[in-house]
Amino acid sequence: MGDDILGGSKVMETQSQQPIPNTARRSLVNELIVRICVSVVTVISLSLIGSDNGFNNIPAFNYLLASVILAFLYSITQSVILGYHLAPCGSNFMQMPFYRYFTSTADLVISLLLLSGSSAAFAITTGANTANTFFAQANGSASLALFSFFIMLPMVAFSFQRILSPY
């Protein structure tokens, strides 16, 4: 008789089988869209700075290249994890406290790497001849890295929101 009142086996559902609430799903979809935008902008910046061999001689451009590569790889990895989590067969991996703290810290570090990489490249390109296509490409790549930083700012807010109020 106790099984009839409690709903039998429905009480035994695990947390990983429970559906994601609609507000949390909407927030995760927004986060996925922003991460894809960061990936697209960083790959364009990467293609600009990687198209010329002369960038290897200047350390500031190497730093910009490294920060853009790290941001691209991190955004792609997080997009795959988010896509897997949003899929019907996905797990509740994102509910784990370690993942929430790691993501918020990594988002902050990646955004600051993008800011410092673009600042280092702007320091070189500001005093250079802008008619030169080499420095024009470097300036474009640094501008896109700075734009990626501004796109990453909501990601930092989403990550810290997940720490403060997990769904």
From TrEMBL:
Domain Casparian strip membrane protein: 29-150
Record has Metal-binding as a keyword: no
Membrane topology reported for the UniProt record: Multi-pass membrane protein
Membrane-spanning intervals of the chain: 32-51, 63-86, 98-124, 144-164
GO CC entries: plasma membrane
Subcellular location per the Swiss-Prot or TrEMBL entry: Cell membrane
Subunit structure: Homodimer and heterodimers.
Family statement drawn from the similarity comment of this UniProt entry: Belongs to the Casparian strip membrane proteins (CASP) family.
Protein's name in the database: CASP-like protein
Organism name: Ceratopteris richardii
